[in-house]
Design brief:
With 150 residues, this protein is mostly helical. The chain contains eight helices and no strands. The two termini are 22 Å apart.
């Protein structure tokens, strides 16, 4: 059973894809979605004025999250092994965990975001990071040298 798909990495992929969909919902639903998801009043107002930045930012983040979902599916064994899968998943886990831990440092740079946003988004990043990290840990032996060679 060592080659069976990794449930943790499948869950990580689903989490990444869901987060990407939430960012795309901001584009589709406009200012109320930006407010509801905690992007801050400034972003919501820019979206209301039709400025491109909020949608560009949301689209960029959604794109990155979808790529991360593909890497998680690759690491899980659901799709073919992508280049540098093991390294990519380690970096993804690290980015999520760093974001969760760095919230206190980031708060002053985003004054429009509420305390609720920081607590919830940091908890979500911690959960997503742990899913990726634990999934990688469990799959490490299965991949062997082939993961880095792919």
């Amino acid at each position: 059973m060592p080659n069976s798909p990794s449930r943790l990495l499948i869950a990580a992929a689903a989490a990444d894809a869901f987060a990407a969909l939430l960012h795309l919902a901001c584009i589709a639903l406009g200012p109320p979605a930006y407010r509801w998801l905690g992007a801050g009043e400034r972003m919501a107002q820019m979206a209301a004025r039709g400025e491109a930045y909020p949608n560009q930012a949301a689209l960029t983040i959604a794109g990155v999250l979808l790529i991360w979902a593909l890497y998680a599916l690759s690491g899980a064994g659901v799709i073919r092994l992508l280049p540098l899968t093991r390294l990519a998943l380690l970096l993804i886990a690290g980015i999520y965990l760093l974001r969760a831990a760095a919230a206190v440092v980031l708060v002053p740079y985003f004054p429009g975001n509420s305390a609720t946003f920081w607590v919830v988004s940091s908890a979500v990043c911690l959960l997503f990071g742990l899913l990726h990290a634990l999934g990688v840990k469990r799959r490490w032996r299965v991949w062997g040298a082939k993961a880095d060679a792919a």
